[in-house]
Amino acid sequence: MTNSRPNFAKTAPKAFKALIGFDAAARAGLDPALVELVQIRASQLNRCAYCLHMHTSDARKAGESEERLHMVAVWREAGHFFSEKEQAALALTEAVTLVSGGVPDDVYTRALEEFGEEELGQLLALIFTINTWNRIAITTAKVPGTDERAAR
Questions:
Q1: Are 72 and 40 in contact (CB under 8 A)?
Q2: What is the CA radius of gyration of the chain?
Q3: CA 117, 24, 32, 69 torsion: positive or negative?
Q4: Quick count: other Cβ atoms within 10 Å of Cβ 147?
Q5: Could you count the other beta carbons within 10 Å of the beta carbon of residue 25?
Q6: Are the C-beta atoms of 98 and 131 separated by less than 8 Å?
Q7: 32-66 per-residue burial string, b: 16 or more CB within 10 A, e: under 16
Q8: Nearest 5 degrees, angle CA 21-CA 62-CA 134?
Q9: What gap in Å lies between CA 25 and CA 50, rounded to an integer?
Q10: What count of other Cβ atoms lies within 10 Å of the Cβ of residue 71?
Q11: How far apart are CA 63 and CA 125, in angstroms?
Q12: Rounded distance between C-alpha atoms, residue 106 and residue 101, angstroms
């Protein structure tokens, strides 16, 4: 069966290019390991296999341990694998990704304490972008393991 869904990069190139710029701006100044953890957790929650495959591969290439990668889905129960700052980021990622009930004040306050205002703004932008990428990949039926970034 072939994928009859549109290629977002080709059908909406201006929006795609703008999103790439937003994504790059969101990452600026954030720890690359933290970036991958956030993107992995959001992709798990959104059930985006394409992005999950991409970001676990990127994390491995950046030196992330298999042990920590296996613990991201259960980070609350395996907190000792993650720093306080990473735990705050993962909690905020969950709250923003599953936003239907709002972002709890205690989650936001913890993240603010760990990151400060400017870095928290960057983290929020990162969470917004991965959720957008997840929705694009899911909607357009991207196939895990077919990372097209090298083709750009």
A1: yes
A2: 15
A3: positive
A4: 15
A5: 13
A6: no
A7: eebbbbbbbbbbbbbebbbbbbbbbebbeeeebee
A8: 45
A9: 22
A10: 17
A11: 24
A12: 14
Between 65 and 3, the higher pLDDT residue: 65
Q: What is the pLDDT of residues 56-113, one digit of tens each?
A: 999 999 999 999 999 999 999 998 999 999 999 999 999 999 998 899 999 999 999 9
Packing angle, helices 49-61 and 105-139, rounded to 10:
110
How many residues are present in the chain? 152
Write the single-letter amino acid at 35.
V
Q: Helix (H) and strand (E) counts for the chain?
A: 7, 0
Question: Distance between CA 11 and CA 149 in Å, rounded?
Answer: 16
Q: Tell me which amino acid residue 2 is.
A: T
CB proximity list for 125: less than 8 A, separation 6 or greater: 22, 25, 26
